[in-house]
Design goal:
The complex is a heterodimer of chains A (241) and B (319). With 241 residues, chain A is mainly alpha-helical. Chain A has eight helices and no strands. The longest helix of chain A is centred in the C-terminal third of the chain and has 29 residues. The C terminus of chain A is likely disordered. With 319 residues, chain B is mostly helical. Chain B has one domain. Chain B is 71% helix and 0% strand. Chain B contains eleven helices and no strands. The chains are: A mainly alpha (241), B mainly alpha (319).
């Protein structure tokens, strides 16, 4: 279709920043420590805001500036700050999670990018927008967020995955139709904010009940106050006469 | 015919300049690094003094050293000089540039590494074998990432030849290519691993547990050691010139007039000076990785070059 060098410099910049948004998704996937992950999420929001502002500039849709400003306020400052405060309060901000098969996870991520390229190809052929090439990237950001949620066990990482799925959805709305109606975007933005606060409450309950944010422990069916450390199955078996 | 002769002469001069200036670059890196870390810096030409001293010194050879051990320094130095001949430094379209493309360049590096690893094991000391095994582990992971980054570039430029690739970038002018950005980052990470710089290996240490490259060449002395160290400096320079001239080729001489060549020399000197400062900052802010952390580091480099290729297909050609 269109070669990159034929596009205007603004459109090239949109594509460059879209690639960087994808890159931050991979950084979140590879990052085992909590604080850098939160910062990567904030960076993704920042890059997304830049893409949105550039799309607004190129396409002449002024309401996208409001979306960009909202993205900066919520996803760059407020939500990362909430997560940061939570992480410090729960004393998990210096923790590193052991990721199983880190290289395999990254390769799976690359596979998801190829898959989303394949899925987006018909849409790209139909669309006439200058940003149509980035649709595949936005779908990939959604899928990578899901992969992050599947691969991680710590609740904070899963919440970051959830938020980055929302980032991907917003991104795809911006690049495929120049944004949703403003009222919808406002609603979604505040939903995400409320979700962030609710997740905070959920974290507190979880860490109080299980003394850990590992979601695998949620499968245990023990009473909350019976014992803080339920005995391992193997251990209880040995104690039996 | 006359034009051919000038071109060959220029190519020879460029290679000589490349090989001759490599210790200077190493000296500059060392100097900036010392300033950065608040230490008294050695003179800029200290690497030349070191090399001269080593060339004058007698060699100590182990009794059981085979011909392999004695031949390796010359093979390594020869491979690096040939590789240096193939990389455009001051001017593109030199006849030596047509001998080898980037894949052959990677092959030269592999050849040198193969013989260094063999020589490390030849004497039979524990350190040599350990260093060889570490070096080959790292190389096996770094090479795919390097080749993938190169393929990303050549998919855009339509050629694996360095001169053609540089021509393509020059003709296209300023285009913001995400694939080039990713390939640049990947190439930088691979270069750090391959030249034994800080997050992967420390070129200034002789601490047994951490050294990789130094462990293999521990038994060398005299002019053998001089040749190997010089080759390592040339390798650093090759990577620096690759990064500088592929991603910022502006200023390189496209015709063989003295004016264009002069601009080319000044341009590459400026670029290398700046790049060395970046390298020093990178080496100063990062701590050395544990050796078991190196595979994820290189895996990330591979992912970056893979992302470069994917973004080239997805974003730049537009389906």
């Amino acid at each position: 279709m269109t070669e990159l060098s034929q596009l205007s410099l603004y459109n090239q910049a949109i594509i460059l920043f879209a690639a960087l948004v994808l890159f931050t998704s991979f950084i979140m996937l590879a990052q085992a420590r909590m604080l850098p992950m939160i910062f990567a999420f904030a960076w993704q929001g920042m890059l997304l805001a830049v893409v949105t502002a550039l799309v607004a500039l190129v396409s002449g849709h002024p309401h996208l500036y409001i979306s960009a400003a909202l993205t900066v306020a919520l996803k760059v400052f407020l939500i990362p700050w909430l997560l940061y405060r939570l992480a410090v309060k729960l004393n998990i901000h210096l923790e590193a999670e052991a990721i199983k098969y880190p290289s395999l996870l990254l390769l799976a991520g690359a596979g998801l990018v190829i898959f989303s390229y394949y899925v987006a190809l018909p849409i790209v052929h139909l669309s006439g927008l200058a940003t149509r090439n980035t649709i595949a990237v936005s779908i990939a950001v959604v899928l990578l967020g899901m992969l992050l949620m599947i691969a991680r066990k710590k609740a904070v990482a899963q919440v970051i995955g959830f938020m980055s799925i929302e980032n991907g959805l917003f991104f795809s709305a911006v690049v495929s139709t120049y944004g949703m109606p403003l009222i919808v975007e406002l609603g979604v933005a505040f939903d995400v904010l409320v979700a962030a606060i609710l997740f905070g409450v959920f974290f507190f309950h979880m860490s109080e009940s299980f003394d850990s944010l590992d979601v695998d422990r949620l499968t245990r069916l023990s009473e909350v106050h019976e014992s803080l450390f339920p005995p391992e199955e193997g251990a209880s078996e040995e104690e039996r006469p | 015919m006359d034009h051919q002769l000038t071109a060959w002469l220029l190519a020879a001069a460029q290679t000589a300049l490349f090989v001759g200036a490599a210790p200077l670059l190493a000296g500059w890196v060392k100097r900036v690094k010392c300033h950065m870390q608040n230490r008294a810096a050695p003179a800029l030409w200290q690497p030349y003094r070191d090399l001269a001293k080593l060339f004058r010194k007698d060699m100590v050879l182990a009794e059981n050293a085979s011909w392999l051990f004695r031949a390796t320094p010359y093979i390594v130095f020869g491979a690096m000089s040939l590789a240096a001949a193939a990389v455009p430094l001051v001017a593109v379209d030199l006849p030596t540039g047509a001998i080898a493309d980037v894949i052959v360049l990677v092959g030269f590096f592999a050849l040198a590494r193969f013989f260094t690893a063999l020589a490390g094991m030849d004497i039979g000391t524990a350190f040599g074998g350990m260093g060889s095994s570490r070096e080959m582990t790292i190389a096996a992971l770094a090479e795919p990432a390097m080749l993938m980054a190169v393929f990303t570039l050549s998919m855009t430029a339509g050629s694996t030849n360095l001169s053609s690739a540089i021509h393509y970038v020059l003709d296209a002018g300023l285009v913001l290519r995400p694939s080039f950005l990713f390939a640049l980052l990947a190439l930088a990470m691979v270069a750090v691993a391959e030249t034994g710089r800080v997050p992967v290996d420390n070129p200034a240490t002789h601490l047994e547990l951490t050294m990789i490259h130094e462990a293999m060449i521990l038994e060398y002395s005299g002019r053998h050691l001089a040749l190997i160290e010089w080759a390592a400096q040339i390798k650093l320079m090759i990577y620096a010139v690759l990064v500088a001239n592929i991603f910022w080729p502006w200023g390189i001489a496209q015709e063989f007039t003295s004016e264009a060549l002069g601009i080319g020399v000044v341009a590459i000197a400026t670029k290398l000076t700046a790049l060395a400062v970046v390298l020093v900052v990178w080496e100063t802010v990062l701590a050395k990785l544990r050796i078991f952390r190196v595979p994820p580091f290189l895996g990330f480099a591979f992912l970056l070059s893979l992302l470069g290729m994917l973004t080239h297909v997805v974003l730049e050609t537009g389906g």
